[in-house]
Design brief:
CATH class of the largest domain: Alpha Beta
CATH architecture of the largest domain: 3-Layer(aba) Sandwich
Strand order of the largest sheet: 14-15-16-13-12-17-18
CATH topology of the largest domain: Aldehyde Dehydrogenase, Chain A, domain 1
Largest sheet: 7 strands, mixed
Strand content: 15-25%
Distance between the termini: 66 Å
Number of domains: 2
Radius of gyration: 24 Å
CATH superfamily of the largest domain: Aldehyde Dehydrogenase, Chain A, domain 1
Shape: globular
């Protein structure tokens, strides 16, 4: 199997501490060997990024735009080689890997190619200012200008490795920053290959670097490094809190996209004709990357008048899904990323059963070997305080809860530490809009789980700090500088 090096300063660098295996979640076979980073490897990557910063930050927006467009073209051209590797290391179904992993990454580079040429200056109206001991009076003009942050450390998640990295890297480069990336340990190989692709597109050496590791060493060294100006992290809330604490010691800028425990509220006024859409939306927790997505509606809160009907429909939906080899085009539910994650998900299900919840469907390990599979599981009759209803599981598990009043639905929805993405399904859009305003959540979908690519993305509470996405991503990777002059 191929042994990869770190990508540092425009070339492959041999890791002094050797390699670790990257495992295919469906076959349990080795896909390749990723480099094991030491603090010295991280230091070399940060130094390369720091050395490249001055020249890169002074390139024209048009140059950055052309380069990012070229990256998108190269990703598309190489899809025949990259998609199988991406599929093998993530365990994603071919549908997800081929249509929502690599193409989405390419689109993010295209989006921020356009973003590179968006204005970075906000003019402010001149203001008459009286004389003071500080300076003479006069008409004072000003502008707020976006400036690059500097060296950005990007620590990414395992569920959508190259998409998540592209969502950080593209706006960071568009705004003139240099980057050191540390992908998730489970599936870093495609992210490593991104180094060669960016170099072929014309990116100067040192502007983009990638280090990997099987444990916490590389990430901790990156967060602590005094040469890093910002950390952009996607992952669990517990790790995010540790990063924030460490980053605070050197006053690093942070952008945190953390966990979620999304609630889909189904109101009693939802027409029968729309009920199937709501069921399919909640069913996406099972059908889309085996529930390994932080925005999934993993809780469905249903008005008591519709509760049994929705639970029955969801049960039928889950049982109809094909579980199996993700390379098979008929497969809808593939494996989880690792044996450890499978065991973690199964422990939540077992705990719910022990606490008196009802396992409507699933809850038993599928008879599939090899692979780290969990069957689509529907839990009902749970109380809002149970772990299965409070904590992010990151697997194909949906918890159904009933409510009698809108007030109760809001209380249950807001009653977890998270606030990333919630949903409201109602026959009255105005009512749903007003209800959305009461939810402590960074995002609310009304009668849909579809996304809008230009919205600011991020969470309330333990779900994160800051916003990216669309033009908001340009602000996320910039500092604002006020420039003042006499008119």
């Amino acid at each position: 199997m191929k042994r990869y090096g770190h990508w540092i300063d425009g070339r492959w660098q041999h890791p002094a501490q050797g390699h670790y295996p990257v495992i295919n979640p469906a076959t349990e076979e080795v896909v390749g060997h990723a480099p094991e980073a030491s603090p010295d490897d991280v230091d070399a990557a940060v130094r390369a990024a720091r050395a490249a910063y001055e020249d890169w930050s002074r390139t024209s927006p048009a140059q950055r735009a052309a380069l990012l467009n070229q990256v998108a073209e190269l990703l598309t051209e190489r899809s025949a080689d990259l998609v199988p590797l991406l599929q093998a290391e993530t365990g994603a179904t071919m549908r997800v890997a081929g249509t929502m992993q690599l193409p989405t990454a390419a689109e993010r580079f295209r989006r921020y190619a356009r973003g590179a040429t968006e204005t970075d200056t906000i003019p402010l109206a001149p203001v008459p200012v009286k004389a003071s001991p500080l300076a003479p009076g006069g008409l004072i003009g000003a502008a707020a200008v976006r400036r690059p942050v500097g060296v950005v450390g990007c620590i990414t998640s395992y569920n959508f490795p190259i998409v998540n990295l592209a969502g950080k890297l593209a706006p960071a480069l568009a705004t003139g920053n240099t980057v050191v990336a540390k992908p998730a340990p489970q599936d870093p190989l495609t992210c490593l290959l991104l180094g060669e692709i960016l170099k072929e597109a014309g990116l100067p050496d040192g502007v983009f670097n990638v280090v990997t590791g099987s444990g916490a060493t590389a990430g901790e060294a990156l967060v602590a490094h005094p040469g890093v100006d910002m950390i952009s992290f996607t992952g669990s809330s517990s790790v995010g809190k540790a990063i924030a604490q460490a980053a605070g010691r050197t006053m690093k800028r942070t952008l945190m996209e953390l966990g979620g425990k999304g609630a889909a509220i189904v109101l009693e006024d939802l027409p029968d004709a729309a009920l199937n859409s709501a069921v399919s939306a909640v069913g996406s927790t099972w059908a889309f990357h085996s529930g390994q997505i932080c925005t999934a509606p993993t809780r469905v809160l249903v008005h008591r008048a519709l509760y049994e009907k929705v639970v029955d429909s969801l049960s039928q939906y889950a049982r109809a899904l094909t579980i199996g080899d993700p390379v098979d085009k008929s497969t809808v539910v593939g494996p989880l990323i690792s044996a450890a994650q499978r065991d973690r998900v199964e422990a939540y299900i077992a705990s719910a059963r022990e606490q008196g919840a009802r396992i409507v469907t699933g809850g038993v390990r599928p008879d599939l070997k090899p692979g780290f599979y969990v069957a689509p599981t529907l839990v009902s009759d749970a109380s809002p305080g149970m772990g299965v209803a409070q904590e992010e599981i990151f697997g194909p598990v949906v918890v159904a809860l009933s409510f009698d009043t809108e007030e109760e639905a809001v209380e249950i929805t807001n009653g977890t530490p998270y606030g990333l993405y919630d949903y409201v399904f109602s026959g009255d859009a105005g009512r749903a809009w007003n209800l959305a305003g009461r939810l402590r959540s960074g995002n609310v979908g009304i009668n849909t789980v579809q996304r809008h690519p230009e919205t600011p993305f991020g969470g309330f509470k333990d779900s994160g700090v800051g916003r990216d996405g669309g033009s908001f991503g340009l602000h996320a990777y910039s500092e604002l500088q006020s420039v003042v002059w006499p008119s």
